Amino acid sequence: MPRILVLLSNDLVYDQRMAKMAEAWHRLGYEVTMLGRRRAHSPALASKPYSQKRLRLFFDSGKLFYVELNFRLWLQGLFLSFDALCGVDLDTAPAAMALARLKRKPYVYDAHELFPHVPEVVRRPRVQAIWQQVENRVFKRFDAAYTVGSAIAAHFQELHKRPVNVVRNAPVRVGEPAYEPDADRFILYQGALNEGRGLEPLLQSMMELPTRLVLVGEGDLSDSLRQQVADRELGSKVEFVGFVRPNELPAWTRRAYLGFNVSENLGLSYYLSLNNKFFDYVQAGLPSLINDFPEYRALVEEFEVGLLLQANPDEIEASARRLLSDDGLHRHLHEQCLSAAKVWTWQQESAKLAEIWSRVLPLNHD
Question: Where are the domains of the chain?
Fold first, then answer.
């Protein structure tokens, strides 16, 4: 059975995308080992049909974190047997490239984002230049590459003149959504509470909106957002749920009346992004407020699953009020979500994943 080693920089518990990929590989007939990171308060791993290993690191951020992460991934990988290696995002690339070269195995690059163009890197030109050099090396070394959306793939191909496949992070289709919005019609944001996700203008708009906001997730802005809620006396209107396991998330999504996915344009990585939550909302039948960015604009032209807008308080408030008060519009967007949910599925996307890997690491079914 061919063996795939996957290197990640995050915890395995909350990574829905990589869990779906690992399960898809397993069903195809590959033996999979996921090698990720264990943080101080990481919960226990759930039982999976593939191997999961986590490294406990001394450093949690900064230059020393990336140095330690890649050294530890490389060191652990030396003692693991594999026939091909998948490096997830640029922050694992040094270890992935070194291991693949040392063991003379194929290297596949899986890009969730444009790492040199995320906000925390863009504002530091010297750091950005280093990561861009790493990306340049990756594009000379990989045997195959794929990313989450066509806009990022087009950027890579224009810059590096190498083909990049697209495997979108659509949810698994499990039947018609059980859409049961609460009577109070709350707004849902699910995902990392990080810079550039439109959360601060969203909180500002909540000063005027006659509804609740539920935030599912944690991140770099967790403490700041909680303080803003306290300062604005929004405690009765804003609920912080914190981290939830992927299997618990649909219960929140199907109860919401409106999803929120309106990032700020803080660089190419955000501008060309295609967030997981977009497809999660659609698969649940949940209309949403959506970035007016290229990837989303193309999808909303295919199925009108939400309203496009910019991340400023006035537009957020106006669009949310419109959907909260116009039942006919909400019903139309909900029906469009139901139609799109039959098309934008992991069953469709996993077939693309299988085709890519069949070229890199063929399965012998004889």
Answer: 3-169+346-360, 187-341
